[in-house]
C-alpha cells in the first residue's frame, strides 16, 4: 500500500497496489502489519457498511471519549466526497478539514484518527460505503457538528437544495458551540 500524507497530521490516504489482468483485478484492502508499519498501530474491532442515494450527506459524526473511534473508510460502489475535520481544541489545525473523493474505481481509503469529525456526501446515483472502527458503536457517546458550519468552509460539491440529511444531522451545533470536542494532546489515539 502507498500512504499519502494530507495537510493534517495523522489523516492519511491509503492507496492500494492493484494487480490487474484479463480476469479483472485483485488488491489487499487492509494489512494490520503493513498499516502498523506505515501509519500507526491500530486494532479495528467493528466493520460497518451503508448504502445511500445521490445527495445523501452523513455527518459530521464522532464519538466522545472514552468511546472515541479511529476509522478507515472506503467506497466500494459509486463515489463519495469524504471529509475529516480536526475537532481537537488547541490543535494547530483545529477546524480545518481534509476532503477526498473515494470511488469504486480509485480504490482509495481515508484513515481518520480519533479527535476528528467525519462525514461523507454521495456524488453518484448510489454509493456503498464501508468503514473499519477501532472502538465499538456507543450510542451514549454519539455526537456531531453541523455539516454546513460556515467556519469549516467545506464544499460538499452538491447543491444545498439537493442535500438529504437525517433529522439528527439537521440539528447539529456549529463547531464553536459543540461540547463534545477533544483536547489536543489528550491520549485518545490508542487504547
TrEMBL record:
> Where are the annotated coiled coils located?
none
Q: List the keywords (alphabetical).
A: Isomerase
Which GO cellular component term is one of those annotated?
Answer: cytosol
Any single GO molecular-function term of the entry would be:
dTDP-4-dehydrorhamnose 3,5-epimerase activity
Q: Which GO terms describe its biological process?
A: dTDP-rhamnose biosynthetic process; polysaccharide biosynthetic process
What positions are marked as the site Participates in a stacking interaction with the thymidine ring of dTDP-4-oxo-6-deoxyglucose?
Answer: 137
Residues the record marks as active site? 61, 131
EC number annotated for this UniProt entry: 5.1.3.13
Question: Which residues belong to the signal peptide in this entry?
Answer: none
Assembly notes = Homodimer.
The similarity comment for this entry is: Belongs to the dTDP-4-dehydrorhamnose 3,5-epimerase family.
What name goes with this protein? dTDP-4-dehydrorhamnose 3,5-epimerase
Traced from the root, the source organism's taxonomic lineage reads:
Bacteria, Pseudomonadati, Bacteroidota, Bacteroidia, Bacteroidales
Amino acid at each position: 500500500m502507498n500512504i499519502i500524507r494530507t495537510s493534517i497530521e495523522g489523516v492519511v490516504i491509503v492507496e492500494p497496489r492493484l494487480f490487474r489482468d484479463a480476469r479483472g483485478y485483485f488488491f489487499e484492502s487492509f494489512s494490520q502489519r503493513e498499516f502498523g508499519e506505515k501509519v500507526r498501530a491500530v486494532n479495528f474491532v467493528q466493520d460497518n457498511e451503508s448504502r445511500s442515494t445521490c445527495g445523501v450527506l452523513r455527518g459530521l459524526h464522532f464519538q466522545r471519549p472514552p468511546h472515541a473511534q479511529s476509522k478507515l473508510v472506503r467506497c466500494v460502489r459509486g463515489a463519495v466526497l469524504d471529509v475529516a475535520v480536526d475537532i481537537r481544541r488547541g490543535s494547530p489545525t483545529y477546524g480545518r478539514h481534509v476532503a477526498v473523493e473515494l470511488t469504486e474505481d480509485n480504490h482509495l481509503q481515508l484513515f481518520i484518527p480519533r479527535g476528528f469529525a467525519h462525514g461523507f456526501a454521495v456524488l453518484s446515483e448510489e454509493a456503498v460505503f464501508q468503514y473499519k472502527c477501532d472502538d465499538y458503536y456507543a450510542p451514549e457517546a454519539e455526537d456531531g457538528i453541523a455539516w454546513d458550519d460556515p467556519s469549516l468552509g467545506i464544499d460538499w460539491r452538491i447543491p444545498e437544495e439537493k442535500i438529504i440529511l437525517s433529522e439528527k444531522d439537521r440539528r447539529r451545533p456549529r463547531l464553536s458551540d459543540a461540547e463534545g470536542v477533544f483536547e489536543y494532546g489528550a491520549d485518545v489515539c490508542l487504547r
